[in-house]
Design a protein that fits this description.
mainly beta, seven-stranded mixed sheet, three-stranded antiparallel sheet, 1 helix, 12 strands, binds zinc ion
Amino acid sequence: MANLVKVNGTCHCGKISLKGSVEPHMVVACHCTDCQVFSGGPFRNNVMLKSENISIHGNVSNYKKIGGSGAVRTQGFCGNCGTHIYAVDAELTLYSVRAGFLDQHSTLTPAKHIFGKSAVKWLSSMSQSTWFAEGPNSKEIKCLVI
Ligand SMILES: [Zn+2]
Ligand SMILES: [Zn+2]
């Protein structure tokens, strides 16, 4: 078995926190149109955690959607601040935890990208845009990500 990486995160308002461990290759970026709508961003990065490797504190709100396969996917989020927490199957066996709210988010590198057919085309041109260190009136910097 691969070494498990410990992850932890807290939603923006602090009412929900999560701890768990994940196999490093189980980091998956999803470019489906539902992830784009829910997040308001071009994709969501997820870590896949088995139910025995996850512990959640706080009251997670749920929204059930029907996935492309016809199966129910419960979307868990903080009902107070709206932070996305996870998606899970009806049997609660495998949690797709949203990496963005985890403390380790910058090092959780996707091993796979799924739903590439709906990925936004501008991701590859990010380095050609103008980048600022912070807000739009801050120092201009070189693109650091590509
Ligand atoms: Zn919250
Ligand atoms: Zn998706």
